[in-house]
Amino acid sequence: MSNVLSVSGLSKTYDSGFQALKNIDLEIEKGELFALLGPNGAGKTTLIGIICGIVNPTTGTVIVDGHDIISDYRAARSKIGLVPQELSTDAFETVWATVSFSRGLFGKKPDPAHLERVLRDLSLWEKRNSKIITLSGGMKRRVLIAKALSHEPEILFLDEPTAGVDVELRRDMWRLISSLRETGVTVILTTHYIEEAEEMADRVGVINHGEIVLVEEKKELMRKLGRKQLRLCLQHPLDAVPESLASYELELSADGSYLTYTYETAQNRKGITSLLHDLTEAGIRFSDIETRESTLEEIFVSLVHEAA
Ligand SMILES: Nc1ncnc2c1ncn2[C@@H]1O[C@H](COP(=O)(O)OP(=O)(O)OP(=O)(O)O)[C@@H](O)[C@H]1O
């Protein structure tokens, strides 16, 4: 397993005395798509800012593809493409000029063929001679991505790539991000849209109050997402769950009036049918049944809440 980014013991205390990051450890594998989730003010932008050399860390180290971000700044920075939320400069430049300039900033030799590929992939080729100020909001977003890809980075950071964009552009962005990943580029994105993480990420990290509270494979999160609960309201309270039902790992409420069965959606129906059969066999009658499902959103909110 090769890590393209290694963050260890990273902390940031701003001059105001506010500690925005607390002892962050994070390993990102080459070629993965990692989604960093967190509520407003959690520290996402600070973390990305440090990795990209915009913010100085207070303690800790960051190694980008073998290069320390402080002692080997130039090499580390050239491995990274950053797509910020907003385009702040270059309004009167053409698309082509701004993208060429971005490449030059990283000391890369001009490569018009590469820039043409990037602009074509982003449906910007026809607009190459247009001034940025004349482009729509969606096109400007595409320019930000083109700039970030101009110097052929190994790692692409996207900060809230789809915040405030329409559905069509969001779909286009998702497609583009997936295809980048296929070319071996490591993609790290921050997002408020859990759906986005769910759709695209290999792994998900949750940051809250400057701490990483969870890093997990998306499939594992989906397993949690797929968990359902069946709650049976009993006609007669029980003192204990009968031995014959032990395999279902039922939970009996403190007053003995409810049984809760937690199961994976993938194996659902058969389990429920046999549970209901075995309950009848055991002479247990119930007056009501409720089901509920935990969503990724709920998991996220509860994680963020726990750490509060
Ligand atoms: N220059 C600064 N001086 C003092 N505090 C700062 C500075 N920059 C950020 N902070 C604080 O650090 C915390 C983390 O901010 P950061 O921008 O990293 O969060 P975020 O997770 O990116 O939030 P959002 O999703 O709202 O962009 C916030 O409480 C913010 O107010």
From TrEMBL:
Pfam families, sorted = ABC_tran
Is Lipid metabolism there in the keyword field? no
Q: Which domain of life is it from?
A: Bacteria
Gene3D superfamilies found in the cross-reference section:
P-loop containing nucleotide triphosphate hydrolases
Stored InterPro entries: AAA+_ATPase, ABC_transporter-like_ATP-bd, ABC_transporter-like_CS, ABC_transporter_ATP-binding, P-loop_NTPase
Entry keyword annotation includes Cell membrane: no
Where would I find the ABC transporter domain in this sequence? 5-234
The Gene Ontology terms for molecular function here are: ATP binding
For this UniProt entry, which segments traverse the membrane?
A: none
Q: Which UniProt keywords apply?
A: ATP-binding, Nucleotide-binding, Transport
Task performed by this protein: Involved in beta-(1-->2)glucan export. Transmembrane domains (TMD) form a pore in the inner membrane and the ATP-binding domain (NBD) is responsible for energy generation.
Record's family?
Answer: Belongs to the ABC transporter superfamily.
Please give the name of this protein. Answer: ABC-2 type transport system ATP-binding protein
Name its species.
Rhodopseudomonas julia
Provide the organism lineage as a comma list: Bacteria, Pseudomonadati, Pseudomonadota, Alphaproteobacteria, Hyphomicrobiales
